[in-house]
Design brief:
about 375 residues, alpha/beta, Rossmann fold, 434 Repressor (Amino-terminal Domain), 2 domains, eight-stranded mixed beta sheet, about 40% helix, hydrolase, glycoprotein, secreted, EC 3.1.1.-
Length: about 375
């Protein structure tokens, strides 16, 4: 793959082929990593024996990708932050994601054709990658047969996201985001060398070796943008060097970066982590530039960042299912407000069943034919 400045780079993608795999259908699943430790990448955290198999965030995400596997869809789950573990560096993440799709299509043993239909899904930090996959696909990987992009709780503007998180319970995300941007851009890394105070340097070093739950617990209610962490800490986001980078990773600003396939976005109006207004602005800009966008808002007060995804599993599933089925998608811009994802008429019963099955998956429900294929293989050999 390639870094932000087109320098050669590399990463890993994990491909999961279900027992009932459907040919010609691939889901590009972008897990939220939201941290900078090498061990936090999906290719590490999903390995048998990894302590992160007991991690709540990973198990929570398995709700959805287990559901996708039950549908028979092959998954590619890339380490889209790359070797620099560059969380929040959207353009780089988009490239890594697209090259992960290319790798899956090119790996003959999986049996995917070059014209395989691909749908991308990402939530929260994964939505940064999903959004930039959508924005860059037409120019960076036009040969990919992308038929849909789904994203929720989308941090469309990194600047306003970290500003809203600073001094709050999730301020550790500020540390992780800054660390990711530093290691994605050499110009930012050079700039920070002259602006780091010991506390800031310690925070970045900690983030580079830990995952998000540890970062959350170490830096709650921290005033990251202060002179405790950085020289002129309150104004670093407005420094010309930093501005030149972060202003270029705002989703939806450039008409040339408009998704060519249908886009489904969902977001709580009361999201306490990612600003709702930024995602809505991106949806408007994309539609203004010619994209077909369905933007779903959740108005129930208890539906914040975490509950938005879990209650919307049925609608996310139906979006992917409908894209593979070739069903029509609304043209232009569509906005829909519901209390929560389960209030959709088509999600109330069928969707609730999917949600129950998804929860059963992470509680240990058996998926697939167990060892029947292995037994048959042994019989055949004998």
């Amino acid at each position: 793959t390639a870094g932000y400045e087109d320098e050669p780079s590399h990463t890993v993608t994990t491909v999961i082929v279900p027992h009932n795999a459907k040919s010609g259908q691939l889901v590009n699943y972008l897990a939220y990593i939201d941290s900078n430790g090498a061990q936090c990448a999906p290719s590490y955290s999903m390995r048998q024996g990894s302590k992160f198999l007991n991690d709540d965030l990973l198990n929570y995400q398995q709700l959805l990708f287990s559901t996708f596997l039950n549908e028979g869809w092959i998954l590619t789950i890339p380490d889209y932050q790359g070797p620099q573990r560059a969380f929040a560096a959207g353009r780089l993440e988009g490239r890594m994601s697209l090259d992960g799709i290319r790798a899956a299509l090119n790996f003959g043993e999986i049996g995917l054709e070059k014209n395989t239909s691909v749908v991308t899904y990402g939530y929260s930090g994964g939505a940064i990658a999903s959004g930039w996959t959508a924005a860059l696909q037409a120019s960076y990987a036009p040969e990919i047969n992308a038929i849909g992009f789904a994203m929720g709780g989308t941090p469309a503007n990194v600047t306003s996201t970290v500003q809203s998180l600073d001094k709050g319970v999730f301020s550790g995300l500020c540390v992780a985001g800054i660390t990711g941007i530093i290691y994605a851009y050499q110009v930012v890394q050079d700039w920070f060398q002259n602006h780091l105070y010991p506390k800031g340097n310690d925070a970045i070093e900690y983030a580079r070796s830990h995952c998000i739950t540890d970062i959350f617990s170490r830096y709650p209610f921290s005033h990251v943008f202060s002179d405790d962490f950085f020289r002129n800490g309150s104004s670093i986001l407005y420094d010309p060097t930093i501005q030149s980078v972060i202003s270029d990773i705002v989703l939806g600003l450039k008409e040339s970066e408009t998704p060519k396939a249908p886009v489904y976005m969902f977001h709580s109006q009361h999201d306490e982590i990612v600003p709702f207004s930024d995602a809505r602005k991106t949806s408007h800009n994309w539609a203004k530039h010619g994209a077909d966008v369905f933007f779903q808002e959740f108005s129930d007060l208890p539906i914040g960042h975490a509950l938005s995804e879990i209650t919307n599993i049925p609608n996310s599933l139906f979006f992917v299912r409908d894209r593979f089925a070739g069903k029509p998608f609304p043209k232009g811009y569509t906005r829909k407000v519901t209390g929560n994802g389960l209030e959709e008429p088509n999600a109330s019963l069928a969707g609730l069943g999917e949600l129950v099955r998804a929860i059963q998956d992470i509680q240990g429900r058996e998926v697939g034919p167990a060892d029947s294929e292995l037994k048959q293989f042994i019989l055949d050999r004998n």
